[in-house]
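User: For a benchmark we're assembling, each entry needs the component sequences followed by a predicted structure for the full assembly. Here are entry 17's components. Please fill in the structure.
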Amino acid sequence: MNAIMIRDLCFKYDDKMIFDHFNLDIKKGSWATIAGPNGSGKSTLVKILLGLLKSEGTIIINELTLTHVTIEHIRESVGVVFDNPDNQFVSETVADEIAFKLENLGVEKAKIRQDIMDIANLLDIKHLLNKEPHKLNNGEKQLVILASALINKPKVLILDEALSRIDIISREIILKVLADYQSAGMTIINITHNLEDTIYSDDVVVLNDGQIVLNGSKEEVLVNEKIFSDLGLELPFMVQLSLKLKFYNLVDKLIFNMEEMVDLLWK
Amino acid sequence: MEIKFNDVSYKTILKNIDIKFLDGQIIGLTGSSGSGKTTLVEMIDALVLPTSGNVLIGNYKVDNKVKLKNINDLRFNVGLVFENSEEQIFNTTVYNEISFGMRYFKYKTDQIEKHVKDSLNMVGLSEDYMHKNPFNLSHGETKKLAIASVLAFNPEILILDEPVVALDNRSKKNLIKIIRALKARYNKTIIIVSQDTDFLHKVVDYVFVMADGQIVMEGTKYDVFAKEAELLNYNVKTPQLIAFSNLVLAKKGIKIGYRDEINDLIKDVYRYVK
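Assistant: Structure for entry 17:
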């Protein structure tokens, strides 16, 4: 079963064909990374999926075909975190910001308060709830936007370069929280030019010039060293290490965990 | 040009900063979001003035009494590229954006075009970009334009605030080359603010770590980055090249040493495993 199905997608911008009969499936409950260099069409794809850009072809999200009739319903089931958090704030306090989506859905006050506390505990942002979103630092802003996106437990979460400004501790918290949501059935789509993020995902799709260059499990995709280097993309450190050690016959597959690698090398 | 912070505080954001950035060094400044890194470097360009203490930049002194005339002279020597580069761009063509600093600092007209082309070249943008509208550029191109605009007026000190966040790997490698060349050929003082310690490790000589408005660690990159547990306390990740060597030492008692490049690490691993 697929969370997202894209069939024959065509999209033009300024007479330039960005997507020409583009097809892609994202499996339900999977964690997929969509990677590609600057200008490969990644962010355009997100905007199309959210109905922010008009395109031709068929897009099915959570079993609903995207049209002007279904768009509102689809948006309720898709959470999105963009790269630039400043453009996304609408409220005066962090708590109001996180509550915004639930208020619009008509959820009762007591339930909203409880949900806010739950998500704030999960993401460790309780101390920020009464602050003004604009006064937070970049990492905190991203956490707040993530909380707002997760608050109604969407079926699909799309991260558009959303982890790039976050510091290591927040990042670890987020990755752990997202893994829990994924186990509970959420589909996670992480769009990035930073391939380090791929090691947390199941599947990797590589885009270039609006076309799929590679698509498969991370183990299948990340071994294509030459393609990544031609695209100007840097493989994750552990993948680079694995591939080079494989060349010297010191390991025989990709190893994503550093401890496992050290144990294997010095048995 | 040497930079010295003399017991500098700013509101509650910076607390008693007392450090020196040496002439001709590539310096990394790291620490978690909100630790005060950006405020500290903005003081070198007098965008933020100390509440107490002063900063000496060569012969210029930045304190809370500094005069506008001195600030302009100082800014001729300090090139600052902001984290959100799109906020520092305000001209309608790339040419005007890059030449703005030179016009402001009264460069001769015949020199300006040459400098614009050279700067574009250095950051890896073709001359075709000269007549483009900066507001139509991608995030990565905007960052390159911001760097070119600063390089064009040839400042003694170059400050890059989170330069690689928006850049793909090709642009990142290019930037590392530029930074190394600026140091080798022109002996510039270069300060790089970044949370990406893998990037810093590849390019800097000396590292400062900030937490809660204070400098909490400083030293050569090997001294600082080797202290994994201490870094983690300050929410800073150890570069993976260093973390690997640390792990081999901790788990297996084998000292394979610290490397700057993955290929050198592989050679060590090969030697010790065989």
